[in-house]
Amino acid sequence: MGSLIADEIIRAADEGVPVGALKRIFRVDAETLRAGLRAAVLDGRILAVPKEDWNPKVSTDDREPTVAGVAAQVRATDEKDLMFRIAQVLKTTKLESRILGVLLRRGSAHREQLHEEVEFNRGNPDTPTDIKIVDVVICKLRKKLAKAGLKLLTVPGQGYVMPEEARKSAWSLIQGDEK
Q1: DSSP letter string over 52-71?
Q2: Of the residues 24, 64, 123, 142, which has the maximum number of CB atoms within 10 A of its CB?
Q3: CA 138 to CA 136: how far, in whole Å?
Q4: Residues 79-119 pLDDT 10s
Q5: pTM of the model
Q6: Residue 127 CB coordination number (10 Å)
Q7: What is the rounded CA–CA span in Å between residue 74 and residue 167?
Q8: Which domains does the chain have, with CATH numbers?
């Protein structure tokens, strides 16, 4: 895959375009596409390989590759464990843990992406939340991160960024490398 095409595929996958559609749109063979998407997950450029149209006979290990989180190797299937560790170490709520998990893996995210994460993980999908919920959660999360010496920055018009050094420190804390 050329770098320009790869960037377009990554962007489309990040928006949730299913793997089968990506194959058809970009005319890429399945093996190359899956390898490229796995690499993007490992690099932290996308959270997970879109799996809506994966063959159910494909093993979970092939569908959900290891996610590299700067200083940590966290399996995508260990999402609940990661959320629990974040909540336990940093004293965050479930929602704050989810948003922090996205920022830890990606380094940055748009408000809309974080809002989708909020909506996807809600118990009551009938009544959508306002996108401003993200700002409220980020505000509360910043206070908790500050206690641990971690920063979360706002990029006007772009979203939120967790600096590389803060990500490394957070992963160390979550893994129990530091006290």
Answers
A1: TTS-TTS-HHHHSPEEEETT
A2: 64
A3: 5
A4: 677 788 888 888 988 889 889 988 988 888 888 888 888 88
A5: 0.58
A6: 6
A7: 14
A8: 3-64 (no CATH), 77-175 (1.10.10.10)
